[in-house]
Amino acid sequence: MSATSTSRPLTQPTFHNQWVLASNNKGKLTEFKRLFAEADLDVTVVPQGQLDIDDAIEDGLSFIENAIIKARHASRISGLPAIADDSGLCVPALGNAPGIYSARYAGEHGNDDKNNAKLVAELQPIRAEHPNEPIKGMFVCVLAMVRHADDPLPIIAQGLWHGEILEVPLGDGGFGYDPLFWLPELQATAASLSATDKNSISHRGQAIKQLLAQL
């Protein structure tokens, strides 16, 4: 290099002031909107549907893999940083099913009534064998954020929310398996909580707090 040559200083990659949220799930979008508003981020989070981005093909075998797949998909199409959520309900007595297949457990994606009914039916033999034992379950949320589509170091955050699974749905709030998810310490289901109370303790609320701390 000659004495007159100059080189550009290396800089750390920065985030744009606009992120894409890689989800078209109405229930999740509502929760994320509240959670991001409470976090007072200096960014605009745009749902991928507003950018005409279809859902990614979720062919991973874990929540982490699927979250990264969705984040890269949205980032590649939009050219923006992207954040993705992969979440579901794990019931140890069922080998952690429905797990990553929670949204399509009964075969039809996003049909909460059918998914809940199948879960209740799958647990009936276990309840019959152990009638006095509560059936444990946990909601899992993994968030993945990528600065660009090929980001080699995605930011990963995880939240776990422990509870029990009821036989009969209770409460008309929330979405997914919320009406069956009983919280003994609160004597309520996730579907019975206000949005504010749910966000303060839920798996998704926990994961977003972790993500923000890493940012």
TrEMBL record:
Highest taxon of source: Bacteria
Family matches, as Gene3D superfamilies: 3.90.950.10
GO molecular function (one): ITP diphosphatase activity
CDD domains on file: HAM1 (cd00515)
Annotated positions binding substrate: 23-28, 87, 175-178, 198, 203-204
Positions annotated as active site in the UniProt record: 86
Catalytic activity as recorded in UniProt: ITP + H2O = IMP + diphosphate + H(+); XTP + H2O = XMP + diphosphate + H(+); dITP + H2O = dIMP + diphosphate + H(+)
Enzyme class: hydrolase
Cofactor: Mg(2+)
EC number(s) on file: 3.6.1.66
Transmembrane segments: none
Cofactor comment: Binds 1 Mg(2+) ion per subunit.
Keywords of the record: Hydrolase, Magnesium, Metal-binding, Nucleotide metabolism, Nucleotide-binding
Keyword check for Metal-binding: yes
Binding site residues for Mg(2+): 86
Signal peptide positions (record): none
Subunit (UniProt): Homodimer.
Function of the molecule: Pyrophosphatase that catalyzes the hydrolysis of nucleoside triphosphates to their monophosphate derivatives, with a high preference for the non-canonical purine nucleotides XTP (xanthosine triphosphate), dITP (deoxyinosine triphosphate) and ITP. Seems to function as a house-cleaning enzyme that removes non-canonical purine nucleotides from the nucleotide pool, thus preventing their incorporation into DNA/RNA and avoiding chromosomal lesions.
Family: Belongs to the HAM1 NTPase family.
Name of the protein this chain belongs to: dITP/XTP pyrophosphatase
